Amino acid sequence: MLARRFKSDDSAVSPVVGVILMVAVTVLLAATAATFFLDFGSGNIGQSAPQAAFSFDYDAGSPDTLTIEHRSGDSIRAGNLYITVSGASGANGQHDFSSLSGTLSAGSEITAGSRVTFSGASDLSDATVTLNWKSPDSGKSIRLASWEAP
Fold first, then answer.
1. Membrane spanning segments where (predicted)?
2. Is the C-alpha dihedral spanning 17, 30, 36, 48 positive or negative?
């Protein structure tokens, strides 16, 4: 008789299910509020990085020169591009793309076929050159292409 009473008495199931549902709804509301009020998603909003292909042509000489050519893809403002040089004698650091050529201004559009020559170092034989794009909206940088000395 006692066993039959336990099998038919399921009154404890309803409160447990109710508590689980209330906790799930509370967590969902808290996550939604945190996303809007704490601005968690703002890093994904804004301008996306351009899709472009670049080639590098190295000429060992005195001084060494490196020609960077925009081969294909999106046009990019010269003011948003910069190169980082490491391992070269005399030109390590960051250089604005528009300062590499006297014909470009920061507002110039770099399109397919555009070329810029970098010759700021006397020796690029051990250098690594990275071409980067800096977002005008967020200030974040993304590497578009890189070149390592042969």
1. 12-38
2. negative
pLDDT of residue 2: 55
Q: Reduce the secondary structure of the chain to three states and give it as a string.
A: CHHHHHHHCCCCHHHHHHHHHHHHHHHHHHHHHHHHHCCHHHHHCCCCCCCEEEEEEEECCCCCEEEEEEEEECCEEHHHEEEEEECCECCCEEEEHHHHCCCCCCCCEECCCCEEEECCCCECCCCEEEEEEECCCCCCEEEEEEEECC
Residue 113 lies in a domain: yes
**For residue 135, what are the contacts with CB-CB under 8 A and spacing of at least 6?**
46, 47, 49, 80, 141, 142
Parts of the chain with a pLDDT under 50: 45
pTM of the model: 0.62
Is residue 78 included in any domain, yes or no? yes
CA separation for the pair 133, 144 (Å, rounded): 7
Quick one: pLDDT at residue 123? 78
Structural domains in the chain (count): 1
Q: Structural domain of residue 74, as residue ranges?
A: 52-148
